[in-house]
Amino acid sequence: MKFSSFPARLAVLNLALAAAFPVLAQQSLKDVMVTATRVAQPLTDVVADVSLIDREAIERSGATGLADVLARVPGIEISRNGGIGGTTSVFLRGADTRFTAVYLDGVRIDSQSTGGAPWEAIPLAQIDRIEVLRGPAGAIYGSDAIAGVVQIFTRKGEGAFTPYLGLGLGSDRTAKLDAGFSGAQQGFDYSFGLTRETSKGFNAKAASNPDRDGYLNRSANARLGLQLSPEQRIEANLLDSWSDSRYDASNTTDDHNLHHLQSLGINWQSQWSEAYSTRIGFSEGKDRYETQPSPYLTDTQVRSYLWQNEYRIGGQLLTAALERREDRLNNASTTPVLTDRSQDALALGYGLRHQAHTLQLNLRHDEDSEFGGQDTGSASYAYAFAPNWRASVSAGNAFRAPTLFQRFSIYGDPSLRPETARNFELGLNYALQSTRFGIVLYRNQIDDLINYVSGPGSCINGSGKYPGCYGNTKRARLEGLTLSGARSLAGFNLSASLDLQNPRDLDSGKLLARRSRRHATLAADTRVARWQLGAELQLSGQRYDDKDNKTALGGYGLLNLHASTEVAPHVTLQARVDNLADKDYQLANGYYTPGRLFYLGLKWSPQ
């Protein structure tokens, strides 16, 4: 890969900060990761490339959208059509947004129409913790986890009854109100939350109505747990989010995106002996998307059943899981209108932690009701070769089944094959107290990429008004280097990440659309008297808006500032300025992005 056009000073600055994960994802040895193996385990036992984002970091960021928080994580960049509420893509290690599996409290979130999670519909206000796994995880999660996994957790009840109330105001007449409470007593824990957020927005599309394209979001969540006995626990979680975001499809119409996202999960956890435990789970995720006044409706339902077994012997962990996934799509352009399919899977895992060695092996077989079987596997090994130093190597494959829309719509092809990927990566990490440094080198090749092919052909819509169809016609290679670090120095918490990547179409040799070859984040925060002050700089190189690399989107740098202080007992004032220099930039051609933004919030939460 050639990155000579990237300013050398930026690379030197990132390396000089010498540490491991950005402030948003700082870790301690006591932290526990669930996503890496689908089993709760200390980070010291995790070989995979991961990041953790807690509630404190989310609130400190002042971000309004989930994607904006993720954009500050190593290996991730985003694209959005306009402002918050506009169609959003999250590119993990340069992969399309559909190649990242997304879970909300263990509930799979996906669209069988567009493919991938509806990022713009997931409410940030209800999120307590985010775990990011970079790298294929098909041997653990089955379909979709070609680039990695993002798992989102809502607040869990702990301790005494604790209410909270938040109010925020910002630019573009943005207003936010959230309230809730949580607690635990006599084996029962609970957490409830409500949020309402609205904004007048700004004119998002340059060539259409010069009106404001605002948004409205209402969301609620509940998470309950009951400890029946020291060995038996039942948990349930529910989230409901409804949003209305405006966009411009013409010069005269005030168009609306209506998004309704729901998730429901129920789990029964049992500890049958000191070594053996099980988890039985049922989950259902629903994604309903509608446009008005132009009539369009698509409704996805993903239902999953899981029986997971864990057996621990000293430093060894063996897992076996049976899982069933059922997808259903209601869309007027498919034949039939209501289409469905199922996948049944057996997954096996083995983990070992012995002295300086850590090993993780996984195998999985998925049997799809439409195209048959798919086998995936992964192997990861880490060696602590010196105090505070660890080297790792990982290899694995993954796949994504075609969406029901890609197979059965007027543009579909029922004979589509799954998209498949093979990944290899090397890692090196250093950690000592507040100083951390990490470097990961990866290469992920994706074959049988599903692409829309225009023009007459043998597909269902070969002679239609817009002739063309989906086909397994492309290959891509995603390769890159990620540097990340954090260090405390002279009262400042410093952090940085730098991604040098080369996401290319192997057939045309062109860069994949809307992905830069380099992007970085620099951050610093400190405490001055009663104030917590911080700044961050987000940098991105040039990208192309199209697959032919003819429409360039210029590089940009965004400087954001944030501050917080306690103004009264249990009352915190939060302030933020985004895009301080009022930078004019684009994430998608033809769509504006917000200029300088101000936000001021108050939160009351007695401890």
From TrEMBL:
It is a multi-pass membrane protein. It is found in: Cell outer membrane. SUPFAM superfamilies: Porins. One of its GO terms (biological process) is monoatomic ion transport. The keyword Cell wall biogenesis/degradation does not apply. Residues 44-149 form the TonB-dependent receptor plug domain. Gene3D superfamilies: TonB-dependent receptor, beta-barrel domain (2.40.170.20), TonB-dependent receptor, plug domain (2.170.130.10). The keyword Zinc does not apply. Residues 169-580 form the TonB-dependent receptor-like beta-barrel domain. Keywords: Cell outer membrane, Ion transport, Membrane, Receptor, Signal, TonB box, Transmembrane, Transmembrane beta strand, Transport. Belongs to the TonB-dependent receptor family. This is TonB-dependent receptor.
